[in-house]
Each structure stands twice: as structure tokens, then as C-alpha cells.
Amino acid sequence: MRDVIESDFIEIDNLSVTFEAKGRRVHAVQNVSLSVGAKQSFGLVGESGSGKSTILRAICGLAPVSGGAIRIAGEPVNTRNAKAFASRVQMVFQDPYASLHPRHTIDRTLSEPLAIHGIKGTDARVVRALEDVGLPASFRFRYPHQLSGGQRQRVAIARALMLEPEILLLDEPTSALDASVQAEVLNLLNRLRAEHGLTFLMVSHDLAVIDHMCDRILVMQHGRAVEELAREDLASARMKTEYARNLFAASADRMLGATSKD
Amino acid sequence: MSLLEIENLRVTFDTETGPVHAVRGVSFSLGRERLGIVGESGSGKTITGRSVLRLIRPPGRIEADRMRFDGIDLTKASEKQMRALRGPRLAMVMQDPKYSLNPVMRVGAQLMEGLLRRDRLGRAEARKKAIAALEAVQIRDPERVMEAWPHELSGGMGQRVMIAMMLIPEPDLLIADEPTSALDVTVQAEVMAILDGLVRERGMGLIFISHDLRLVARFCDRVLVMYRGKIVEELAAGDLMEAKHPYTQGLLNCLPRIGGPRKPLPGLDRTGDWANA
Amino acid sequence: MTQTLSQWLTDPSPSSRAQARIGQAWLAWLRLRRNHLAMLGLAIIVLLCAMAAFAPLFATHDPFTQNLGQRLLPPGTPGHWLGTDDFGRDIWSRIVYGARITLYIIALVAVTAPVIGLAIGTVAGYFGGIVDTVLMRITDIFLAFPRLILALALVAVLGPGIVNAVLAIALTAWPPYARVARAETLTVRNSDYIAAVRLQGAGAGRIIWGHVMPMCLPSVIIRVTLDMAGVILIAAGLGFLGLGVQPPLPEWGLMISSGRKFLFEQWWVATMPGLAIFLVSLGFNLLGDGLRDVLDPRSASR
Q1: Inter-chain contact B218–A253, Cβ cutoff 8 Å?
Q2: Contact C138, C201 (CB under 8 A)
Q3: C81-96 pLDDT, tens per residue?
Q4: In a domain, A115, yes or no
Q5: Total count of domains within chain C
Q6: Which of A96, A224, B28, C48 has the fewest CB atoms within 10 Å, measured from its CB?
């Protein structure tokens, strides 16, 4: 019995999200179900407008859920109890240029969650958090505009880990970054997942990134789930649907050995 | 004879914390071929592209020993001459069509504007040309797109319209700055194929600026790799895998691959002498 | 300490929050210094402050001493370079002492109206819905009255006097700040950094105070400097109508009012304080324009 609960750490059941914009109803997500086991890494992949980011926002209560249920460790999520939810689930946003407050120093950004939750020992924790994401302590009192995109994203990751959550929602965490910086950030995320025992729910449009990071993958299109794949099925091109195959073909130059010598 | 010759191009921005050298001595020449400029953000690739059109605003300064386009000295050309060059002879496609199209003008009107004003064509003829341009970028129902507002177009559609607009005056040189990076992968390939076909058919010169080394290698004849305002390596596109420079190699190796091993990705080692040159 | 002050100010890795903040202010100051017109504006305002602080040193006469033998002397008279008014008081000295009253009014308005406006604007913008509707309709009601008329009505109820004049001005000046703050809040509200702090469990109060307000502050400060000219004019207007500062205090509006009777024969009595109002208003406007370039979050983030 315990196993069942373990494998359904995050459960999303027939989730629908509907926005109301200028009298028109936009069905951003329609009847999507998925489940992620504890300490697993699950990927959502799709093109723009496929609703993949909306699912993450719905989990956090940042998007209006119009149907279905979201459960974490068997309990329906309650984003109204913001503090309890915050110490359990955190999110890393796509654009590191927009996700850090431009008029707060890194120190302020990182100590804010501690202040909200009344956690003591701010100095030591902030320094340790910076160390953890590979930033020098001398960055502590800088402003975001004094950092590069990759450094900002490291700060955003450090902020997400300040409250020691169990689940990290990653919304295209590297799509705004250069390739070499993307590699560093992906490595960092993998290391932190192993060290902190995190569960990842990651969104990306890049199949290669998702493949590198995730064990299971859900392909989405127009707000609907198209196909769920294990990592091995993706690498050996065993997909069942037309759309997933197209997406795979368009990423052909991201295949192992596609352009490299071996 | 080469279409564009640039020697020792330098672009400097004077800021309150001192001058920032965005481009530090870039030289290259271009015939009627497809040249790729690759580099990461801050490498100066976009600034290089923009300085060819002299689209650098103060406090930026452009200096070059030589900057000639088809025999015209771009360093000495007046602003009026530059305006006459931009568009009919030198065109640029930007990254995001959302910011390049006028949001309060229908697509058709924007396409026809140049034809009506500059070439003094009649409405019917201008319309015919605009529709032909949309067909050239493989838009299926050009009549409908002509009547559309920019916000009604998808990203891929908007970028095609931008390319069509740039190609109407049949320029000699097209500078495409990350024309596909705001687009989905499946659309990306289509747009690149369209661009590629047009360059071949019309014998234009193309400068393709991108951060994606492999995309550039696929669509260009020659590739310049830039790092911190300098060209670190020049390669024939086919020889990409034989790249010697550690930076180029690093860029190639740091991408994750589908089905690749689950070990940490090789990062870019910036400790070599080249990194601080 | 081998470090020089400018190194400490431009240190890319500050060692405390205070140093980081001062360093940023220093950079803003360097940017502002490039704008010559803004510096001219600042010079005018600094001069005004100096004049107010050291009025006895600047003034050549006592502003209240009447000398009917020397009434209505024209400008250029030795000893009375700007002339004298109808009671023989030195106009220059009265303008100098009037700077104190002007500054007093400006300072009081600057610490009240923007604060009210900022609070109402950010709360309305952040919560939206019914809160927004109610607060903004109240704002609209205040905006719908001509400012001077509303101030007049308030002074008429409260009675004339300098404090009541300030109160009236503050109560009529806040709605534009509320609008500015609300507009800014609407753009900030849906940003990722606000979403991030919400996800950390922050309450509305903390978000508005610590995260939204700092983003609205620059636009409000710019607006305040640009409005200061208007505040001076309204204060002068109330003084002119006899509802603000009471004679014999040397308030600039009041001085114009008293010069009105001799406008055609002894033009300087009304013109000199008018010039003072004009100069100070110009100073604030120039500074405000310069600050816009420096503080505007859209230009500063780049």
C-alpha cells in the first residue's frame, strides 16, 4: 500500500484550466492527468500554447482551475494556506530577468522567505544558499542587474530552496540562457535534486533538455495530453502518436551522434 | 568582388562606469553567400549586425578601418544615404516579429507602404506584389493575411510576414538576427528553409546571426564564431566538427542530447588564455 | 583603509545592504549629473533651501519693518535692489523670507499627498475587483473637481491659515498619485517576482509594502517634483485670494495679491514675487524631467 502512495506523490486528475479573457473562454488545459512519484523527475514538453506552463501555475494557485483535482502526497492542495504550501512546493521561473525583484539585493531576495516564515539564522542560511548554487559570497549584496542571466537563475534556484521544499516546479528554467550556461544550470539542478531528495516537475520545449533531466515525459498539444513516454521510449523513437513523432523529428539535430563525430 | 567588406570594426558604449567595448576589432568579407555569426549573449554578434546598417544609438560609437558595401563607404555615408540603403539594399530581420510589426496597421498596409511611397506603384500593383511576397514565404492564404492585424498572427506567421516585407525591395544583403529563436522547433525549420530558398534563388548575401551553432552550420556556407567582441574562429560550415578553438568545441559539447548519458554535461571551460584575450 | 571613497561607492561586490544602496544612489547621481538642465533645476532648489535656511544672511532688511517714507521705490534703488512695496518693505528681503513659507508648504504637501496616493493606488491595483472599483471611484470624485475650487471649499470650511491651506492642497493633490501608483501596480502585479514571493507565502501587506511600493516609488517621486510647481501656484493662489497665509507674512502669492493694486504704475511689486514663483517652479520641473530619466524603472533596468 505504501508503495502506491509513494509513486503518486503528485497526482493530477483530469485537470482543466479555463481563462476568461474579454468575454471569450480560453481552455488552456483540458482534462490532463498525470502522476509523479516521490523523488522522481517528470517532464512536460510541448510547443507554445500547449498549456504546459499553465499546469505548473495551476498547481501553485496562480491559474484558475475549472475542473479536476491536484493532490500532493494524497492531500488535495490548499494554496490558501500559503505558508504551509510554500514550504512544500516552490517554483523556478523561465525568465531570470523577470523573476528577481529589480530593486532588491540578492541578500534581500534570499532572506525574504526566511522573514516570512520567521526562520532564524538568516546570515548563515543566505551564505550557505549562495554556496549551494555555486555563487561566491561576495555576490550577496549585488542587485540583479549586476548579474548575468545564469547567475540570476542560480539566485532564483537558491531562493526556491530556502524553505527546503520537497517539490520543485521548473518552468523552462534554461530557455533564456546560453547553451554553456544551460549546461551549468542543468548540472546544478541535477546535483541539488540528488542532494536534497527533490521531486521535479519540469516544463520545456526542448526535447533534449527534458530527456536529459526527466524519467517520464508527457507530450502536450493545444492544452491536451498527447502521449506519455518513458525516457527509453523517447531515445529509441518509440512514440505512438503522429504529433510526438513530428516533435521528435524537428529535434533531430539534438540526437546523440547526430552531428558529432562518433 | 565582395559585397561587404569590414575591417577592424569596433563598437564602444560610453557608460557612467566607463567605456564598454562591445565589438573589438572584427574583420570579415562577404560575397553573395550565406555567412553565419555565432556566439553567446554578450559576444557582440547582434551589435556587429546592427553596425553594418549603422543602427547603433548613442552612447554607442562605431569605428572601423574599412566598412564598404558594394563600393559604398559606410563609415562616411551620410544619414540620408544610409536611409536610402536600408530597406532597398540592406535589410534586417529581427528576433521577435511582435516588436517589429506596427500593431495598429493591417499586415497588408504595412507590406504595401514601401511600394506605394518609395516605388510609387499603383494600389492594385502594390497589392499584387505584396501578395506575391507572402506567397514566396509560403503563406497559404495571403488574401486573408493581408487583412489581418499583427496580433492575430502566430509567431511563425509573423516572422514570415517580416521576411516577406524585407524581401519586397529585393535587397542585396539580408541580415537575419536570431530570426527563429522565438519560434517553436517545428516552425523554426520551415522558416529557415524559406529563408534559405530565397537566398539561393535571388543570389542575395545573407548574414545569419544566432546562438545556435548547429542551426547555423546547417544553413550557412561559412561560420564566424564570436566571443567577447572578437572573432575567435572562422570555419567552413561543413568543417564544424573539426573546430579547433576550445570555445567552439565547448559550445558544441555542452548541449544535452536525446538518449545521451546521464552524467553532468561538460561545461564551457573559461579558464584558458583565450577567454581573457 | 587604502580604498578611496569612489572605489567604495562603485564596488561591484558591496559588503552590506547599506553599501549596495548607497552605491546605487551614487550611480543614479552620476547619471543625473550628465543632464545639465536637471542640474540647473537642482541648483535652483538648493539655492531656495539655502535662502530659507539662512534667510537673515541673505536679506538686507527686516521683512516686516514698514517705512512709509520709502514706499513703492522702483528696482535699482540703492539699498532696495528689487524695490519696495506699498508699506515701504524691502521686496528682496520679503522674497527671501517667503522662501521659508514656500518650502514649508512644499515639504508638508510632499510628505502627505504622495503617501495617501501611494497607499490608495497600490492597494486598489493589487487587490483589484471591488476594492479597486470603490477606491478608484472615490479618486475620480476628487479628480472631477477643479483643484483650486476644492481647496477653496476646504479652506472656507476649515478657516484660513497656513496649515489649513496645506491640508487643503494635500487633500486635493493625492488623486493623481493614486492613479500613477495604481497603473504601476497593475504592471508589477502579474510579474514573476511578485508570483515568486506569493509562492513563498507572503501576505498582501508584505507584498504591497515591500515589493510593489518600491516599484511605484520612482514614478511617484517624479510626479511629485513635477507637481511641486503646481503646489506652489495653488498655495500662491490661496494666498492671493486671502485664504491661505495671512498678512503680514511674506508669502509670495500674498505679495502678488498686494501688488495687484499698483500693477500698472508700480509693476515690480507684483512682478518680483511672480518671478520667484516662476524660477522655483522651473527648477522643480527641470529636476523632475531629469529624475524621470534616472529613476524610471524601465530605463534603469537596462
Answers
A1: yes
A2: no
A3: 788 887 888 888 888 8
A4: yes
A5: 1
A6: A224
